[in-house]
C-alpha cells in the first residue's frame, strides 16, 4: 500500500515537472528560403514565422493587439511588419545592400509565410551574397533563424542566432 502511494506521488511529480518544463522551454524558429531566378534576375524568397511570435512582436514593439492573419487584424499590423523586416532582414551583394519588397503573405496553420522579392539582381564573376537575419532575436534570446540559399546551382544553409546573425555565400 505504501509503495503504491509512493509511486502515485512520484509519477504525479514527474508529469508536473514535464508539463511545467515544456511551457518554460518554447522553441523559437523561422525558416527563410532564398532562390535566384536567372530568368527574372531576382531573388525570390519565402520566410515562415509563427503567428504567435508575430503577435507578440507587434504587441511588445509597437503596442498593438494585432490578431495577425485573422479577420480582426489591426490595420497597421502589416505596415509594422514591413518596417521590422527592413531593419532585421537584409541582403548584400559584395557589400552593397539589396532592396526588396514583401509581395504578400498567407497563413499556413500556425505560421505565416511571407513572399519577398529583390529585383534587378545580376551575378557576374566571383561575388558574395551576405544574408543578415535577426528577425525576432531582439524579442527572444533563443530565437533561431534558418536560411537556405540556392543561387546559381550552389546551395548553402545557415543557422543564424542573436550572436551570429549573418551568413555569407561566396559564389564561384
In short:
With 172 residues, the protein is of the alpha+beta class. The chain has helices at residues 2-24, 51-62, 77-88, and strands at residues 29-37, 42-50, 89-93, 96-98, 101-108, 111-119, 127-133, 144-151, 154-160, 166-171.
- Beta fraction of the residues? 35-45%
The N- and C-terminal alpha carbons lie at a distance of 73 Å
- Number of beta strands: 10
User: Which whole number gives the mean pLDDT?
Assistant: 87
Counted up, domains total 1
Q: Helix segment count?
A: 3
Uncertain runs are 15-25
Rg over CA atoms, rounded to whole Å, is 21 Å
The largest sheet has its strands arranged as: 5-6-2-1-8-9
Shape: globular
Q: Quick one: biggest sheet? A: 6 strands, mixed
**Classification by helices and strands:** alpha+beta
Structure description:
By secondary structure, this protein is of the alpha+beta class. The protein has one domain (27-171). Helices cover 27% and strands 41% of the residues. It has helices at residues 2-24, 51-62, 77-88, and strands at 29-37, 42-50, 89-93, 96-98, 101-108, 111-119, 127-133, 144-151, 154-160, 166-171. The chain is globular and about 50 Å long. The N and C termini lie far apart (73 Å).
What attributes characterize this protein structure?
172 residues, alpha+beta, 10 strands
What are the SSEs and their pairings?
Layout: H1 2-24, E1 29-37, E2 42-50, H2 51-62, H3 77-88, E3 89-93, E4 96-98, E5 101-108, E6 111-119, E7 127-133, E8 144-151, E9 154-160, E10 166-171
Parallel strand pairs: 1-8
Antiparallel strand pairs: 1-2, 2-6, 3-4, 3-7, 5-6, 7-10, 8-9
Amino acid at each position: 500500500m505504501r509503495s503504491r502511494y509512493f509511486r502515485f506521488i512520484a509519477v504525479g511529480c514527474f508529469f508536473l515537472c514535464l508539463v511545467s518544463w515544456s511551457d518554460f522551454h518554447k522553441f523559437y524558429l523561422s525558416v527563410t528560403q532564398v532562390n535566384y531566378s536567372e530568368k527574372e534576375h531576382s531573388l525570390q524568397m519565402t520566410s515562415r514565422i509563427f503567428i504567435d511570435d508575430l503577435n507578440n512582436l507587434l504587441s511588445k514593439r509597437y503596442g498593438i493587439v494585432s490578431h495577425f492573419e485573422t479577420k480582426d487584424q489591426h490595420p497597421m499590423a502589416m505596415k509594422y511588419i514591413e518596417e521590422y523586416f527592413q531593419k532585421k532582414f537584409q541582403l548584400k551583394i559584395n557589400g552593397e545592400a539589396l532592396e526588396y519588397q514583401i509581395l504578400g503573405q498567407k497563413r499556413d496553420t500556425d505560421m505565416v509565410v511571407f513572399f519577398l522579392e529583390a529585383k534587378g539582381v545580376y551575378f557576374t564573376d566571383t561575388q558574395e551574397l551576405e544574408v543578415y537575419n535577426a528577425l525576432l532575436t531582439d524579442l527572444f534570446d533563443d530565437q533561431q533563424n534558418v536560411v537556405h540559399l540556392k543561387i546559381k546551382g550552389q546551395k548553402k544553409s545557415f543557422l543564424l542566432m542573436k550572436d551570429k546573425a549573418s551568413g555569407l555565400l561566396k559564389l564561384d
